Amino acid sequence: MAAGYRLLLARALPRLAGRDDRSSQALATAIRTTALGRFPAEERAWIERIEAARARIPTSAVEVGATVGDGPRRPVGEHLEEASQACLWMSLPPALGRFLTRLVRELAPDSALELGTGFGISTSYQLAALDLNGSGRMTSLDVEDMVAIARPGLERLGFGDRVVLVGGRIEDTLAGAVAAATPIDYALLDADHTEAGTLSAFDAILPHLAPGGVVVLDDINWTEGMRRAWSAIPGRPGVAATVTVHRLGIAVIADRSEA
What is the pTM of this model? Predict the structure, then answer.
């Protein structure tokens, strides 16, 4: 892992100092072990498989994009160059993917939710952790086109039984998905990168989070609106702690001992 990422991770630890709840301790362990590069052999094996899958995405996007939908369209992956560029800016970099694997390994959630399947790379890093834990399922939401592109790669990696992919406008599918996944132990919000959309999604899942639940938000520094959204999260009911790790914001929900 690049030295810059390790430094950013290490700087996040003081925010968790003195917190002895299970989720904060799990988060601190994930940050510390990622910063030190202490990935178990089984996680390293998954990381290699996922990065190999990332390299195949542009071709897969072109192939799937040509068949998605009922009529002619300009798919996300119409050209290899466009698909490659889209994968670069839509998917988390390997360093943060590894951190998500470490975090989900430590949290060991039974029910996980992801808003923004994208090409399935972040999804894969989290599902790898669930697979290694031997328990837990994820519900991942995105528009139909992206779900169609992500699905084959996730199936090739063997995640079919660990994930429910929900296609459609997230505004339309979120309520049903959240109800089915409740209580939610862990969530990644990586879809609507606007201030209003981010806060709306967070507020929608907040009542359905389990005590001690953890929510990760991507791209919190992308725009001024996203910075305002992240600044508002600590004031939401039940949020006990927040930590920033580069472009990720992480919120820990109060457990029963803090209620």
Answer: 0.88
Whole-number pLDDT of residue 149: 87
Amino acid sitting at position 148: A
To the nearest whole number, what is the mean pLDDT of the chain?
88
Per-residue confidence band for 80, with pLDDT thresholds at 50, 70 and 90 = very low
Average pLDDT of the segment spanning 24-33: 96
Give dist(CA 187, CA 44) in Å, integer: 23
Which 3-state string (H, E, C) describes the chain? CCHHHHHHHHHHHHHHCCCCCHHHHHHHHHHHHHHCCCCCHHHHHHHHHHHHHHHHHHHHHHHHHCCCCCCCCCCCCCCHHHHHHHHHHHCCCHHHHHHHHHHHHHHCCCEEEEECCCCCHHHHHHHHHHHHHCCCEEEEEECHHHHHHHHHHHHHCCCCCCEEEEECCHHHHHHHHHHHHCCEEEEEECCCCCHHHHHHHHHHHHHHEEEEEEEEECCCCCCHHHHHHHHHHHHCCCEEEEEEECCEEEEEECCHHHC
pLDDT greater than 50 at residue 77: no
* List of domains in the chain: 3-55+92-258 (3.40.50.150)
Instruction: Choose among 218, 217, 227, 236: nearest CA to 195.
Output: 227
